[in-house]
Amino acid sequence: MTPAPLAARLGIPSGPLFFPVTAYGPDGSVDLETYRLHVRGGVEAGAAAVFACCGTGEFHALTPEEFEACVRVAVEAADGRVPVVAGAGYGTGLAVRWAALAERAGADGLLAMPPYLVRAGQAGLVRHYRELAAATALPVIVYQRDNALFTPESVVELARTEGIIGLKDGHGDLDHMQRIVSAVRTEDPGGFLYFNGLPTAEQTQLAYRALGITLYSSAVFCFVPEIALACHRALHTGDRGTVDRLLDGFYRPFVELRDQGRGYAVSLVKAGVRLRGLDVGEVRPPLDEPAGDHVKQLAQLIERGLALIEEAK
User: pTM here?
Assistant: First the structure.
């Protein structure tokens, strides 16, 4: 049976969206077998999709050969059970090349990262993503953050572009997102998807749900899927008591810890995966490892979060 199109598969929020870390061996090279275990474990735990080699997966640090190998392993590990979306980025020409590599590796779609370095106008940004979408058979999700921020009118243009199926928001301006959602709904009603892409998205997901945005990325799922799944279920069923307990007892303290170091949105998550027993190695430069005391605090937070979900049973 042919799988449903990516937009249809993602449109049903059956679980958190899993952004696996990329595993490295002791010599710093990509460890594909450990990565396979990590991805397979996430799929079996209940992820709704795998977003391979994206922000948490250190897209910026991978060579084209490593990228293609990791995406292929993610596709193999998912084994058709959930879709696999791969990162693509830099300038237009390179983004098209990453898209070709992802397509060759068997990915189901692309998460288009912001263009490298430059701050472009709206017309240039729209052209960049339209050219990427035109160059690949893979559906594209545009990632709004940093130097890729869109007016509502630009998002309407993107939503009308064949091959672009959604917008992931990593900016966090809820008033602006409401304007975007309203403009697209008015000008191009259809199945355009929206994702909460803020770091530790659970922290803001109650607010995003009020805008009708139910899809979100979960870095926490990488190292404590039990907590991420409990939060997802509570959000989906309207169990506000459980959501509040997890926010107060785990997510808010985790965000406060994450904010104590640059790059902790990746390196602290990777430390968490190691704490749970899977040696995925350290981050690559220019990121660096979290301080030892912060790792100890993370271990305590994990225990606290797991105790909270046990108490709720």
Answer: 0.96
